[in-house]
User: Fold this.
Amino acid sequence: MKARTSSFRDLVHGTISAPESRYSVTGHTTPQDGPDSASNEKRNKLLSSLMSQYLARDVPAIQRQIVNHVEYTLARTRYNFDNFGAYQATALSVRDRLIESWNDTQQYFTERDVKRVYYLSLEFLMGRYLTNALMNIGIHNQFTDALTGIGFKMEDIATEERDPGLGNGGLGRLAACFMDSLATLNYPAWGYGIRYKYGMFEQRIHNGHQIEIPDYWLTYGNPWEIERLDVTYPVRFYGHVESTGHGFKLTGGEIVRAVAYDSPIPGYDTYNTLNLRLWSAQPAKEFDLTSFSRGDYYGAVSAKEASEKISSVLYPNDSTDAGKELRLKQQFFFVSATLQDVLRRFKKVSRPLTELHTKVAIQLNDTHPTIGVVELMRLLMDVEGMGWTASWETVKKVFSYTNHTVLPEALEKWSVSLMVKLLPRHMQIIFEINRRHLEETARKYPNDGHKLQRMSIIEDGHPKMVRMAQLAVVGSHTVNGVAAIHSGLVSTRLFPDFAKDGYRILNMTNGVTPRRWVQQANPSLSAIISRWIETDEWVVNFDLAKGLEQYVNNADLQREFAESKLENKKRLAATIKKVSGVEVNCNALFDIQIKRIHEYKRQLLNIIGVIVRYNKIKKMSPEERKGVVPKVVVIGGKAAASYVQAKHFIRLINGVSDVVNNDSEIGDLLKVFFLPNYNVTLAETIIPANDVSQHISTAGMEASGTSNMKFVMNGGLIVGTMDGANIEIREEVGEENMFVFGLHTPEIDHARNQLKYGEYKVRDDRLSEAMNQIQSNMYCGSDSSGPIMNSLQPYNDYYLVTRDFSSYMDAMDRIDEAFKDKTAWIKKTIVSVARMGKFSSDRTIREYAEQIWDIEATPFIPGSISYKS
Ligand SMILES: *Cc1c(COP(=O)(O)O)cnc(C)c1O
Assistant:
């Protein structure tokens, strides 16, 4: 087998000296942000000789480093530390290495004066760092050996890490996959977001109900981040606008300090290391003297304390936003700090701000950071003194916007009155942006008041609202959707007026990183791919997996695929055993649906299908039961704390699980599990074990989905609707390798109306029986079964669960038939894995870089930096 070779691996991790030029400088700059300091040759010579060597990668050196961290950083004794101590010391040892390449990378970008992309996202769902970092920089084996030598197991150490759950679901995970691809492809990029103290809540199940436990993930510290007490910016809320004679100025109000926390993002097999900068809110230094003069010392302190709330908690919403003032504060807080940071970096080299777009591209991950369009206008005009026209032209060249949903209820809006109170200057600027925008539109389309209303940033009504999506479109040079069908709907349904008016709306089909989702999550499959295609280059070029297809009829490959699958199913079975105490049959078909619980994702359709399967088996004779394909159904996902209906779904699923799993007549033929607390780490265990996964949203409602990609890459087949990226996955793997069912998007509105007005009646005895059982509270109490039954009435069945039911059951039958032929099934999975190249986030990121950001891959060249600038 041809192994990847890389000069960087040897440079970075060998015992080779650092490039001499690294510290042969006449002015050492803290690579991130420190002030330029006057220098003296002698001092730098000394520093250079002190640090002439990168950290060594040999096992004894790694062991020394780990033990040193135990003693000098953790202040524990080297003779007595537990798994968690070993994890911390290991993480710090890895971080030390990342800091070398990270500093050099940032300095290199600065000296090359490259254009950077800034990815602004309210969520980054990163998952654990340790294994990812070690595998990306190619020293996993050395660290494993080093730990073994001092009496620890890498598997135990890695599981000590808390999952930083700084995201809800797909949107946050997309940001994380993108960071991995940006680093791996050597693009100059930064991620910016919020360092929430409380991430996504921990989900527990109590009597079948979801319980939310606050996730204070920082309890035991976060060894991957670096607090930058020197990188802080003031962010002003409330206050009032003053005229300065030649412009406007915002004064008064409340100032909060944003403090930077940086985490290095290593790419795979490259020296380049990117930065994820998350902001934390702290009280500002400025004191309000009046409260002190009144003697209200404690009151003044507690008022200051309140400002920390801004970065306290991630809003656990998915697709619906509650319109909370604190949420808008979070958005403005992180965007304002980010833009100040970006402008400061740009201004290190003196050049006109009208050239900002030649060095800066800013991607808005959904509308959440859209207030940045307005904040940049304010900074350019009020602080930098630029005129309106020049500022607006600059802003439009810098921003681009990714839309993540066309569901009307999920489009962000803020009331004008809230904006006026919280961000008075910004509201003024929005009114002016809108005035000019509508004036121009009216010139082009005179006498079309409806069009103006639709395109307006301000929605008329009581109360008046600011539509963040319209603002994002108007303030960006490019808008993109996240899968072909979704981008089409963005053009035809969400923003048809803008599309006709020539606004640039592109499609960037999502992807996932094959590093985390195949190489790290599925070691046995990874080894098979590398062995058969005779290279591990697929890790950075997933198109190469195509090479598997020529061996699809080879019995050895088929056997290896089957063995790998069995091994992964055993791993999941162990998790199921731990959670439920139930031992499952690993030869059963593993049928999995894990994703946020949402009506449009239709976990209800899945669980009704399970009930029907249960009823069918119950009615069978012992002889007939011999023909049943045994099945293990796994469902997981969190419901937003305020999403009552989604919580009823969880209750029903757990109720069905209780009935079915405790029915001795059923035995191994059917088992159902709700696995609590779905997160990235759990996904890494569950996904490789799938035979089938369910992506069964009502057509037109799932923008893309990304777990569908992860599942197929891991050797499973999809049962799904023609929605989101399912459509493109089907194009790639072939319709014979996917179980497709259900109405298509153009049919949905009509079908809904037919149901509603009784023009179409669903008749299916299996469905009626299942509904009767739910109605009779066989699985859960009426507090849950009532609302669920209500949602299934024809006039209420907005998501068309009953309408798609028969078609769905047909697909489930086709799965059973296909699964009985083991060889044919394995061949389908081999072909599917081989054809998933398109869904690597590397492809997605290249498209963004070339078509939206206009940035260049900039791999670090050893010995090329001077630290002079
Ligand atoms: C990939 C992923 C998602 C997105 O799943 P969909 O099924 O595409 O909605 C959500 N949560 C986690 C933890 C993920 O890894």
Q: What stands out?
A: The pocket of pyridoxal-5'-phosphate is lined by residues 125, 169-170, 173, 595, 679-680, 683, 705-707, 710 (CB under 6 Å). Residues 1-36 have pLDDT under 50 and may be disordered.
